Amino acid sequence: MSDNELGTFLRTWREAVSPAEAGLPTGPRRRTPGLRRAELATLAGVSVEYLTRLEQGRDRNPSAQVLGALADALQLSLDDRMLLRRLTKEADGGDPLVCAAAPSLGYSARPTVRSVLDRLEPAPALVVNWIGDILAHTAGYERLAGPIGLLDDERPNLLRYLFTDERARDAYRDWDRVADDLVARLRHGAPLRDPHVAELADELTVTAGADFADRFADLALAPRRTGSQQIEHPEAGSLRLLHETLVLPDEGQRVIVHLPADDATAAALDRLDGRRPGALRAVGEAG
């Protein structure tokens, strides 16, 4: 195996992307297949000298922001972005699955919290930790989130789904607003300098690019405890939901409860749950 797999990866992809694919004019005299280094450097917002060092293996520790910009410029797929991130971690001698000296991050909900969820049925409700991992949920939430693909992963994560699953943009009509809120929660709702947040932020900066990175860098974004979402559900149709967040500070977890914002949504959720109309009632949005 090459001892410069990161550099080989970048050079191979640079040579595979045509100027036309990158939105650049195609000149008559091009001896270089694909993009020139200067062209890729300009698209990614880095210097030619720095890109040269990366390709030659003289710099093996690019920031997540640089990787995200390069991945955007090269139009990498999600799988290729993940590979780029892994190669960078390996080149730097790190293990992307390990956060050294990390504080305790809960990956399960307490039995009493699960009992609270049981009593919230049939409302869609879930428990998440501070990086957005879904730890527990009601059956009502599974019927809401399952068909849009949110629960497909072995350890579902709200941010990873929203930013890397193509189905999320079809499901959330107000995708930008939801993205703002989730990133603000990640940025401000976790312990200071938390390594788990840093790890997820690095991952999403590479895999989602500027859509995530620009929001994460915006300190003005503030999380909201209440809010609304509009979901296009493949089985229930258009849904307008309000949500309320209950904080469990000792565990670093949150209970999020979704409630119908109008009678049409309440009836649609009842049908989705196989219940007679009236099990869920619409909740008026605070003025």
Which terms would index this structure?
287 residues, single chain, alpha+beta, elongated
Round the mean pLDDT to the nearest integer and report it.
87
Work out the oligomeric state of the chains in this entry: single chain
Cα Rg: 22 Å
Uncertain runs with pLDDT below 50, 5 residues or more? 95-102
Helix-and-strand structural type: alpha+beta
Q: Could you explain how this protein is built, in words?
A:
Helix content is 45%, strand content 13%. The protein has 287 residues and is an alpha+beta fold. Strands 2-1-5-4-3 form a five-stranded antiparallel beta sheet, with helices on both faces. Strand 1 and strand 2 form a beta hairpin. Helix 4 runs antiparallel to helix 5. The radius of gyration is 22 Å and the shape is elongated. Mean pLDDT is 87; it is low at 95-102.
Give the SSE layout:
Elements: H1 5-16, H2 37-44, H3 48-56, H4 64-73, H5 78-91, H6 111-120, E1 125-129, E2 134-137, H7 139-145, H8 158-164, H9 167-171, H10 175-188, H11 195-207, H12 210-217, E3 226-233, E4 237-248, E5 253-260, H13 263-273
Antiparallel strand pairs: 1-2, 1-5, 3-4, 4-5
Helix pairs in contact: 1-3, 1-5, 2-3, 2-4, 4-5, 4-11, 8-10
